[in-house]
Design brief:
With 111 residues, this protein is mainly alpha-helical. It has 3 helices and no strands.
């Protein structure tokens, strides 16, 4: 039996197994043709559509796809002005001379 929802995985999918599982669950939890406000799956008897498994499948399908980029291109960042660089030069020098820390010698232990 072929499953039409498994024919073509969209290009934006980054996690194929998660997307296929979400597609399987979503295909199994469709609205009832006689009662569109109810889920047709026998495990969801009396549940309103979309049932919890259908909502979880929708969220899993979203998690399995790459998010849409809102802006295209690259951001342009201006280089700092030379006056700003000169103004902050030397701010982070040590205030006292740096002396190397000496590590204490480990004491021998009796075995």
């Amino acid at each position: 039996m072929t499953q039409p929802h498994r024919r073509a995985v969209p290009h934006a999918v980054t996690d194929v197994p998660l997307w296929l599982l979400a597609a399987d669950v979503a295909a199994a939890h469709l609205p009832d043709p006689d009662h569109p406000g109810r889920c047709a799956n026998l495990r969801c008897v009396g549940e309103a559509y979309p049932c919890p498994p259908a909502r979880d499948a929708h969220r899993a399908g979203q998690a399995a796809t790459r998010p849409r980029l809102l802006a295209g291109g690259r951001a342009r960042v201006a280089a700092p002005a030379a006056s700003a660089v000169a103004r902050f030069a030397g701010w982070f020098r040590p205030t006292r001379p740096v002396t190397p820390r000496q590590q204490p010698m480990p004491s021998p232990r009796a075995a």
